[in-house]
Design a protein that fits this description.
Length: about 450
């Protein structure tokens, strides 16, 4: 079974060119929201780190710190995080301005802590680089430079205004070594946090880029379908007049004595009239499908009657005697006979019959609230590269112009009905294409149980 020529009747292509399929793509991006969550997590780490550092410095080195104002800053960070959690609960998206404000508040809190603990001489001033780097990754250029300006001004202010630390001489014999140790700890902390959080931010950005790429591909495919539908509709209008003329001429000729008296000629004219009538029916279907939404012009039936009629019509039209049909669905719910679905199934059967004329199997099954329609063959199967891109246009193994639209159209018909298409090769020979549809999209009422 291959992804071959667009055997799907062209009316189904026109039926896809509807406003529903051409709906605008979603524009909200959850990436900034995920990144705001990361900033909140980083702030929690900062709160815990400050508490641990204060406890260690006061107990181990005996350095007297202004605990009350430092505790007030920590409490303010905790309150900010709690408020941020509540705020995010009612927001679907986060803007660049929101991220900038969060980073600026973190810079202000860090500056306040450094002011109380030695100013620019504090070795933990290197944590400013953490905020700048996160800003460069998360924000646009203008906002990033705004954050850089704030950190530079904060550092410059700390060289002038700060509360010096009183180091006890009996605990700290070499202040320079203590400063180097603090710089080392700050460097390690800065490096670890940068790697952890920038890696997670990049993962969020890659997920966003992948989603945008999928949306662009989806939009391109829908645009391709709509253009095909418009082309089909225009061709149908152009074909209508000559087909009507041919039908009138054949009727006139058939009534001529020389033709009606010859059984062989009369039979040939009957076949020609049937062929013209079929062409007119196809043209009419294109024109009707191009202007109707799903459900208009459909007829109520049952699942068994729908599938049985489809199999009988397909077998007769293709003179196929080797189609094995098995209905293992169980119950027989009332459904709407959807024209686009019927044409999609016919297209899959045609592709299977083209590569496996000796045997084709069509099976209907039920999996919970899903209708499963499987078409299997004994052909050469799909190329591995085609299986990885099933349903993409112009994916064909025959390499002829116009090939590769068959399953592309089927996938889009089934996707419009809320289902999906899967395909796989058999171990020996052949392949299977499975159409999965929610019963709620077909049933007239609630789907019945088994």
């Amino acid at each position: 079974m291959r992804n071959e020529a667009p055997n799907l009747p062209i009316g189904a292509v026109a039926a896809l060119a509807t406003p529903e399929i051409n709906a605008p793509l979603p524009t909200k991006d959850a990436t900034n929201r995920k990144n705001m969550v990361l900033l909140i997590q980083l702030r929690w780490i900062a709160v815990v780190g400050q508490i641990v550092t204060i406890a260690f410095v006061t107990s181990w080195f005996g350095i007297a710190l202004p605990l009350v104002p430092m505790a007030a800053i920590i409490c303010a960070l905790v309150a900010l995080n709690v408020a941020s959690h509540i705020w995010l609960r009612y927001r679907d998206d986060v803007s660049n301005r929101d991220l900038l404000l969060a980073l600026m508040l973190d810079v202000v809190a860090l500056t306040a802590e450094l002011y109380l603990t030695g100013g620019a001489s504090n070795p933990f001033t290197c944590l400013y680089l953490l905020q700048v780097t996160l800003g460069a990754v998360l924000l646009d250029a203008r906002s990033s430079w705004s954050l850089v300006a704030l950190t530079v001004l904060s550092f410059a202010w700390l060289t002038i205004e700060y509360r010096p630390l009183a180091l006890p001489q009996h605990h700290v014999s070499d202040p320079f070594s203590l400063h180097i140790t603090g710089m080392f700890v700050g460097f390690v902390l800065d490096a670890v946090l940068l790697v952890v959080f920038v890696t997670r931010i990049n993962r969020n950005l890659r997920e966003r880029d992948a989603k945008l790429a999928d949306l662009r591909q989806h939009a391109a495919e829908q645009d391709h379908i709509i253009r095909m539908g418009l082309l089909a509709s225009g061709a149908a209008h152009e074909l209508g007049t000559p087909l009507a003329s041919i039908s009138v001429i054949l009727n006139d000729w058939r009534r001529m004595t020389a033709i009606s008296a010859d059984p062989a000629l009369a039979e040939d004219f009957t076949e020609m009239q049937a062929a013209v009538q079929r062409c007119k029916s196809i043209v009419t279907d294109i024109l009707v499908s191009a202007g109707q939404a799903r459900g208009e012009g459909s007829a109520p039936t049952t699942l068994t009657a729908f599938l049985t009629t489809l199999v009988a019509e397909w077998s007769t039209a293709r003179s196929a005697r080797n189609l094995m049909f098995r209905n293992e669905f169980g119950s027989d719910p009332a459904i709407v006979s959807d024209v686009a679905l019927k044409q999609a199934i016919v297209n899959v059967l045609d592709n299977a019959f083209e590569v496996s004329r000796e045997w084709v199997e069509f099976v209907a099954e039920r999996d919970g609230d899903q209708l499963l329609l499987s078409v299997s063959d004994r052909g050469p199967g799909f190329d591995p590269a085609m299986l990885a891109q099933i349903g993409r246009p112009y994916q064909s193994s025959k390499g002829r112009p116009g090939r590769g639209l068959g399953l592309f159209l089927v996938v889009n018909v089934i996707r419009k009905l809320g289902g999906g298409v899967s395909a796989w090769n058999h171990r020996g020979r052949g392949a299977t294409v499975r159409l999965s549809l929610p019963l709620s999209m077909l049933a007239i009422g609630e789907p019945s149980g088994d």
